[in-house]
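Input.
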Amino acid sequence: MISARMKCFVVTAGMKGVVSECIKMLANQKEVSNIEETMVLCATEEEYDREGKLSAFVEPILTPFNKSLLFTPERYPALKKFRGAVVMGDLVEDLAAVRAVPLETVLSIGFDNFNVPEVTAKMCAEFDIVVKNDGTLEPATEILSYIAGPEEHVTKEKDWLSKILY
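Output.
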């Protein structure tokens, strides 16, 4: 999902330092040298003590419940240039991340990690696509590869989606 041609924001309740390093490692594997220019990371920042141990989280702490308050065009002015977004999450509340952003198109991909009928029904009602049984990022990777362009798109056998989606 890392592309030299696709600009993106990553909004996660995860730890910014850890997520940032993972993204840089993936970018290096794909030989994407301009990752700093093409990606903005909105995540909870952490502080470390002199020994390098995690000592605190920097306010504001990002959670699925406050993403729409913190991920705004006022806080991230570059958002004003975006017309579309792909939102991925394992909670319906993750969809709130883009509510404050004026977008023309939003594609939402949910990951049903719970397999509880009531939760699954709610996810299917709210997300455009729901990956079942704690599935992989493969659907998102395929979609983003297709958006990025033909050079990066990998075709799969026709029925692969039916095996992992509701």
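The chain has a mean pLDDT of 77.
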